[in-house]
Amino acid sequence: MTNSRYDGLADDEALLTGSVRAAGALALSFFRNGTVGRSKADNTPVSDADLAVDEMLRERLMGERPDYGWLSEESVDNPARLDAARVWIVDPIDGTRAFLAGTPEWTIAAALVEHGEPVLAAVFNPATDEMFTARRGGGACLNGVSIAVTRPEEIAGCRMIATKGFFKHKVWTAPWPHTESTWFNSIAYRLALIAAGRADATLSLTGKSEWDVAAAALLVEEAGGRITDATGAALTYNKPSPRMNGLVAAAPKLHGLLVARTKPVAAKEI
Predict the structure, then answer these.
(1) Which end of the chain is more exposed for a tag (fewer CB within 10 A), N or C?
(2) C-beta of residue 16 within 8 angstroms of C-beta of residue 89
């Protein structure tokens, strides 16, 4: 029997996935034809594609659900969202640097958050036609097929998604076991790949925003994994300040082993 708390989400789920797929087609037209980026006040990049996708998603999602809140990287924050029971949390293009470089490692990420907890998620890589979806209590899928995290028993030999040099940084007081590492610019894509079992873990000590993580965090959890900030604290959403202290995502046992290393230094940025 379906949990009554999440009854009635079918229409929201169809709206979310349909809107994200349509926004993906729009983004892909910019990606194929080229677009120019510029720096925002915080020195992060933005492009006309980011803004166009943000506008499309806001029109589609808020147009159908005007009583929901809205939080997006490319929209001026409206504190009215704090009083909304349900909030759309959106990153129009996660991985703008990869997008501008012509690298197919960017995504459109959107979640529906209810009382601080993601209940629906869609993370779409239009360049590779990978649609990752999840519903709280309903599992996670890639293009409609169920996915699950890997379950390694130790750190040694794991496939990590982390920045080059992360494991050799001077902040660590003890050396890390040997691991294989790779990198993808989009935070949401990194987490989606963990959910799909294509790598074992991703971790970062640098600050993140709710729109980077909300949708893909639900993918990880519904695929059997665990995700927290770098101190091991649970993630909550639709906060007045939508920031979090890094992240660690992996299967539960591996997650615990990783947090044991990241927690003591999580206040420091690499």
Answers:
(1) N
(2) no
